[in-house]
Design brief:
single chain, about 75% helix
């Protein structure tokens, strides 16, 4: 019993250490955004500000159009999430439930494309967008991300856990594929669909390289690109840089905190029983 208790204690200590290492940068970023310039540059560093400088956030919005950055990021992340989820849903359903000629070849091709890193085709995508005249547009920002083979394969494995008997029974009852998807498949797969939607939204919110390539106007920048530009413009004002970084990260942290149970449930597939 003593060995078990000591082992458990050591495990908790190790977990606590790693938790502190992981969480501390985010906590310091939030607190640093409320410090004065002197507090952010003192050695040893200040952990808790003497006075919370809420005016730092007002200065951030005054020096850069972060409201526009938020709007652009929300629009692009929302559009890519809705469209890519819809496409992944239909693609996964087709691969699991439908039988058609060349299905195996299609799966092999898609799996091969999944192995190609995005960085390998990013400049090809850029040339395509540039030739279409879509630079500095919302369409140019979202077009390459309106479908995701990874999300389709994730949902395919998720849908594969659902008994084919349910699909066959629905067909016997006269339901169309479209009715089966929306009335049976979607309600039974809410956990997986929610996980895909959340991952897609977070990916869109955190995008950096692609928006950097296809936008060069301040009015079309996304949050991460605007933050990089602001960090250069703000110069040595580290407290404003930390405040701006908090504005960029905080919405995603809140989103993860609120929906953490749904994410876990979607990953372990607790929604599919029997």
């Amino acid at each position: 019993m003593k060995k078990i208790r000591w082992g458990t204690l050591i495990a908790y200590i190790i977990l606590a250490i790693f938790a502190i290492i992981t969480v501390f940068p985010f906590i310091y970023m939030i607190l640093g955004g409320l410090m004065s310039f002197r507090e952010t540059t003192t050695i040893p560093p200040t952990i808790i500000p003497k006075h919370f400088e809420w005016s730092n956030y007002a200065k951030v919005f005054a020096q850069a159009p972060f409201g526009r950055y938020f709007l652009n990021t929300f629009i692009t992340a929302s559009v890519t999430t809705v469209v890519s989820l819809f496409n992944a849903l239909l693609g996964a359903f087709a691969m699991v439930n439908l039988k058609f000629k060349g299905k195996g070849i299609v799966q092999v091709v898609l799996l091969s494309l999944l192995m190609v890193p995005g960085e390998a085709i990013i400049f090809t995508n850029y040339n395509t967008i540039a030739r279409m005249g879509l630079l500095n547009t919302y369409i140019g920002l979202v077009l390459p991300f309106l479908t995701s083979i990874f999300y389709m394969y994730y949902l395919q494995s998720y849908f594969g856990s659902i008994s084919q008997t349910i699909y066959k029974a629905a067909m016997i009852d006269g339901a169309s594929d479209w009715e089966y998807i929306w009335k049976i498949l979607v309600p039974m797969s809410k956990g997986g669909l929610f996980t895909v939607a959340l991952l897609s939204f977070i990916s869109g919110w955190n995008s950096f390289l692609w928006p950097l390539l296809v936008t060069n106007e301040d009015s079309m920048r996304l949050l991460n690109n605007g933050l990089t530009s602001f960090a250069s413009d703000a110069g040595s004002e580290t407290q404003l840089q930390l405040a701006a970084a908090t504005l960029t990260v905080l919405p995603i942290l809140i989103l993860n905190f609120i929906f953490r149970k749904q994410i876990i449930r979607g990953v372990v597939r607790n929604d599919l029983k029997g």
